[in-house]
Description:
The structure holds 2 protein chains of 2 kinds.
Chain A: H1 7-34, H2 39-42, H3 57-65, H4 68-99, H5 105-114, H6 124-133, H7 140-164, H8 168-176, H9 181-210, H10 213-218, H11 226-231, E1 234-235, E2 238-239, H12 241-261, H13 263-270
Antiparallel strand pairs in A: 1-2
Chain B: E1 4-13, E2 16-26, E3 31-35, H1 42-50, E4 57-62, E5 65-66, E6 77-80, H2 92-102, H3 107-120, H4 136-148, E7 154-158, H5 166-183, E8 186-191, H6 194-200, E9 203-208, E10 211-216, H7 218-223, H8 228-233, E11 240-243, H9 245-248, E12 254-257, E13 262-265, E14 271-280, E15 284-291, E16 295-302, E17 312-317, E18 323-325, E19 331-332
Parallel strand pairs in B: 3-8, 3-9, 6-7, 7-8
Antiparallel strand pairs in B: 1-2, 1-4, 4-5, 9-10, 11-12, 12-18, 13-17, 14-15, 14-17, 15-16, 18-19
Amino acid sequence: MARNVSTRRKIVVTVVAWTIGILIFFPILWTFLTSFKTEAEAIASPPSLFFFDWTTENYHEVQSRSNYFLHFMNSVVVSFGSTLIGLIIAIPSAWAMAFSPTKRTKDVLMWMLSTKMMPSVGVLVPMYLLFRNTGLLDTRTGLVIVLTLINLPIIIWMLYTYFKEIPGEILEAARMDGASLSKEIIYVLTPMAIPGIASTLLLNIILAWNEAFWTLNLSAAKAAPLTAFIASYSSPEGLFYAKLSAASTMAIAPILILGWFSQKQLVRGLTFGAVK
Amino acid sequence: MGNITLRNVSKVFGAHAVIPSIDLNINDGEFVVFVGPSGCGKSTLLRLIAGLEDVSGGEIAIDGKNATELPPAQRGLSMVFQSYALYPHMSVRSNIAFPLKMANEDKAVIDRKVSDAARVLNLTDYLDRKPRQLSGGQRQRVAIGRAIVRQPKAFLFDEPLSNLDAALRVNMRLEISQLHQDLKTTMVYVTHDQVEAMTMADKIVVLNRGRIEQVGSPLDLYHKPDNLFVAGFIGSPRMNFVSGQPAAAYQAHTMGIRPEHLVLSKENGTWAGTVGVAEHLGSDTFLHVNVDTIGTVTARVSGDFPVTHGDRVFLTPDAQRVHRFDDKGLAVR
């Protein structure tokens, strides 16, 4: 039965919802607008919201000062690479835990999750030394390894949840029909789990793209992704708000566009299993 | 050929012996039904035969060869699941073709076998649909199609009709029986519904708490139950059991009399009682009679027998049809 909602209540709720939405979105909008201001206008008080001399000078400046394309490619390699490797490890792991659980499966899952509870900075020094001694410092390979490892628990947890939703009888039917374990995973499990795998893939690309702690600490110039590119404009000697904003806008634009086009898939993935 | 032999087969989950030990022989071409209340181990037994569960002890032989350690795919058996277990992302055609594809059959052979199966099962017009676009009965037929294309040694059915509505269930029951007559392949069928067991089986295996209570043809079980459990489980409405004085008259600890073997009269008889509930089915009427010294007794009378709630009636057991059981619940013959 539909509830009766008065027009006044509708108006109030709409206004409140829009206000919260705009408040949350405001920093991104502000960054975007600032990227088109001059440095002087960027720090002017009171600030002007829309009425200033729009300029693309910051973008030219950022382009000429640093190699955006290199950082962009580093971001692509690191985020896609770590996510794909993570999936290759996680699909069989999640399969085993979902369809062939043991008494300790829940403990293993909790243990994996517990690694995410520790603050990253706690292991910074040993990780840094390991990377330095193995020559992985400031390499794409090194960043792919570290991002694969830190996101693996989330990938496995997400896939485990999706796989749990697939009825075991269907996999048993495949076994009766003569499918080997690998064929069962390729022909039956994976196609059925595509929505779940796709949303896991997307979410992890976004997480890896935005990961700033390890990428900033373990890379310098060669392998630095876009997070390091942004950070290079916030230096202690003096902030360049307008250029920082231009760099940020350029760094988040690709992932924002990816997210926009795949939002349907993402929402479906994140609410998977919520409603049968 | 499809001969299945179980020798001392047992299954233990943790500390709980679901199946303590079972010996059973299923002959080639037989339609065998495992029946019993839920939790009696009938599905587990079927899954052991299929190879979906490992046995804890004993041996399973298929056509005389030890298959105990073989994986499901190599046992040459097909299974139809209660939930149909169709592959939702594949068309009906691909679902039926899947076992053949896994066996690396030639494409032309696959196409021919799939269209043959589809014709037999009236699925030709639905081959390009996805399972979600089919009704329950059609889905079950696709599951059967997927099972028959492999020409297995035996079919295993795990409560295949439980998800269908009553009318469809009767139809599918007939279709499966028809299929068995056409193919003459061994079928092992699990159900908790004794009507399905009685109507379809050549041989019924009655299971209770992981043990076989009795094996026999439907009419054997109906006429000569070995014990109280089988007597009470087979037949609908279930057999009346009476102990004490009336049973002693038949030299038994407990006497059993089926509702259809009680003669009803309004004038005189052995037991006097009052009609409690009268269930009119049209052809028959089931009367639940409160007999003064015994308790509630169910009687089955012709639908045109004039009787309603509160009537005083007399019941007389047909002496030839009384079943006698000793104090251990075993039949006395």
